[in-house]
Amino acid sequence: MSSMEPTDNQQPQPPSQPPSPQPPEQQAVVGPAVPAGPPEHPRRILLVEDDDALANVYVTRLQAEGFDVRRVNNGEDALAAAISYHPDLVVLDVMMPKVSGFDVLDILRNTPETANIKIIMLTALSQPSDQERAKSLGADDYLVKSQVVIADVIERIRHHLGQAA
Questions:
Q1: Strands lying side by side in the sheet with 141-144
Q2: Structural domains in the chain plus CATH codes
Q3: pLDDT tens profile 88-142
């Protein structure tokens, strides 16, 4: 019996041929599963700090925590970056060149495009009157540099962004 003759349970088969490739739209894609819906972008943090050494520590830590960070070193650049970068949260120093942090806060809160951005003041000013001023201008939080460590700042950022620690 030749290989082309049917047996009791087999149908005739043509000689073996390699399978033809499927058109690209039908080929299975093998790889990691992609979650449904748009991917969540890393939360954007605008760091406004004129002290380079301190800013570098914060940028490094925030990036290690998975945040997308942009740093500017004065209030004037902070106002421009708040419009162009669209941060989810601003960490804002008070005593800076050009425009103070209080003025930046006031302008951001009174600009429709930036009015709802979360703002944490991170400053050396520890007087209750400074904290009251920040709150009256719309700060979401007020942290005194000498009273917090970076982990505290990260925790407050996550809190205001609604993320678990």
A1: 68-72, 44-48, 89-92, 118-123, 141-144
A2: 44-160 (3.40.50.2300)
A3: 999 999 999 889 999 999 999 999 999 999 999 999 999 999 999 999 999 999 9
